[in-house]
Design goal:
about 250 residues, alpha/beta, Rossmann fold, 2 domains, six-stranded mixed β-sheet, four-stranded antiparallel β-sheet, 10 helices, binds adenosine-5'-diphosphate, binds magnesium ion
């Protein structure tokens, strides 16, 4: 169980998150909102990469900042930015990440094969990441996030910049991860997440404005027939200004 309690994040004058409180148990959650809403900030806080200005995050009741290094092995995180390890082969990148995560030496080889096969990247594993397509880069990022089989998996815009076919493939791979884990996936593309999410968390200007099943959200927001309509109803004006990364 992940508990986010009154988390606020301020960057000088700018408030990126305002007293966000959420409780998540196992399942796939879609964090949906336009660019600048605070998705990456929230994910960086949940994964312990940045500290909140106020509030706390608990994992099974324990403060994640108190858990420190132990928390690292409990979470898998695929950040939004990529391209940091272009000269590494996929396999070398995974072995580097496995070491950072503290995975036992004798387990590393089998674990890398497991995650490579999960994302269907065995064939390309010995090639440099720099030569991968966008979809392959995302798949290797997901592979490192699931190293060690963590109970909390956080994927920040895993489908950004991908073509429609690759988007569906990533979506199906995320779906296959589900089980007794918490999986949090951010996106501003409704179709990437609506078919697989247990619940959608709607985020706007640093606040979670609603959370519910796709079905209930459609009912609540004017009886819309799909979540796309709900999204345009709520965020239409903001998305109009953002022509980047549209399908
Ligand atoms: P999203 O991932 O939903 O696009 P972000 O969490 O990246 O949103 O950003 C939320 C807000 O916080 C934005 O207005 C952004 O400009 C601001 N922000 C994010 N990171 C920083 C930073 N390091 N310094 C200043 N402002 C930031
Ligand atoms: Mg972001």
């Amino acid at each position: 169980m992940l508990t986010i309690s009154k988390v606020t994040k301020k960057y000088k004058e700018k408030t990126a998150l305002r007293e966000v409180s959420l409780e998540l148990d196992c399942g796939i959650y879609g964090l949906l909102g336009p660019n600048g809403a605070g998705k990456s900030t929230l994910m960086n806080i949940i994964t312990g990469n940045i500290k909140p200005s106020g509030g706390t995050v608990y994992w099974d009741g324990a403060d994640i900042y108190a858990l420190g290094e132990r928390f690292r092995s409990l979470i898998g995180y695929a950040p939004q930015q990529q391209g940091l390890y272009n000269s590494f082969s996929g396999r070398r990148f995974l072995s580097y990440m496995a070491a950072l995560k503290g995975i036992a030496k004798k387990e590393v080889r089998a674990e890398i094969e497991r995650v490579l096969s999960f994302v269907n990247m065995q064939e390309a594993a010995d090639r440099a990441i720099g030569g991968y397509s966008g979809g392959m880069k995302q798949r290797i990022l997901i592979a490192q996030a699931i190293l060690g089989d963590p109970g909390l998996i956080v994927l920040d815009e895993p489908t950004a910049g991908l073509d429609p076919k690759e988007r569906v493939r990533i979506r199906e791979q995320i779906k296959a991860l589900a089980g007794d884990k918490i999986i949090l996936v951010s996106t501003h593309v409704v179709s990437d997440i609506a078919p697989i999410a247990k619940e959608i968390l709607l985020i706007r200007s640093g606040s979670i404005i609603d959370r519910d099943t796709v079905e209930n959200l459609c009912r609540k927001y004017g009886g819309s027939k799909d979540l796309e309509e709900v999204y345009m109803h709520i965020f239409g004006e903001e998305e109009k200004d953002d022509a980047s990364d549209t399908v």
